[in-house]
Amino acid sequence: MSDRRDGTPEDALAAEDAADGSAGTDADPSPDGGHAAAAPSTHTVRLELVDEPGQLLAALHPIADNGGNLLSIYHERGNKTPRGRIPVEVDFEATSERFEEIVDALRSEGVNVMQAGTERYAEEVTILLFGHLIDTDLSDTLSRIEACESASVADVSLAAPQGTEEVSSARLRLEARAGETDAALATVRDLAADKGLRVVEPLAGVDA
């Protein structure tokens, strides 16, 4: 993955060129002489990618293939998400209609879209999980929470004073979309019940 902060990686230039060609047709007048289509505007998506060769380019293809004109890419390899993945911010131009298609295409390709455009994780809640977190696969637990479109795991703190084979606890700070905190918590409750874990929520006023 590239560390360039002021533009797209060289490997993605071909994808960008293809996007330029397709995106340019959006503003053309309709054949019947009607008004031109809506002009493209700048959008930002925040993605979570596995730190493996080719992942960035694979994530850019759905943008280019659906008419997005890539503007810039920004990521920091040292700033990883709780699941050990790399957050990547991509700016591109597209009409509102194509933007929705691009976000859907990214998710269809298995790319975790943490934030799309004005879609904000505006609410924050901290919870505690107790139980055999390691034996029940903590990574899977976090992945299943992330799969809930209502929330993202912003921070994880694991405590296993008696060793990983015994009961441990984890403090999770969740960022939920505005008005969707209840849906995010419902996902955590169902997951905890499925894995035999105990959940304590929410913890108001806790600095995670």
Protein topology:
Blueprint: H1 13-23, E1 41-49, H2 55-65, E2 69-75, E3 86-94, H3 96-108, E4 112-116, E5 123-131, H4 138-146, E6 151-159, E7 168-176, H5 181-195, E8 198-200
Antiparallel strand pairs: 1-3, 1-4, 2-3, 5-7, 5-8, 6-7
Helix pairs in contact: 1-2, 2-3
Describe the 3D structure.
By secondary structure, the chain is α+β, with helices and mostly antiparallel strands. The protein folds into two domains: 10-116, ACT domain (Alpha-Beta Plaits, 2-Layer Sandwich); 123-200, 2-Layer Sandwich (Alpha-Beta Plaits). The protein has helices at 13-23, 55-65, 96-108, 138-146, 181-195, and strands at 41-49, 69-75, 86-94, 112-116, 123-131, 151-159, 168-176, 198-200. The strands form two sheets. A four-stranded antiparallel sheet has the order 2-3-1-4. Strands 6-7-5-8 form a four-stranded antiparallel sheet, covered by helices on one side. α1 (13-23) packs parallel to α2. It starts with 12 loop residues before the first helix and ends in an 8-residue tail after the last strand. The relative contact order is 0.15.
Structure characteristics:
208 residues, Alpha-Beta Plaits, 2 domains, 4-stranded antiparallel beta sheet, elongated
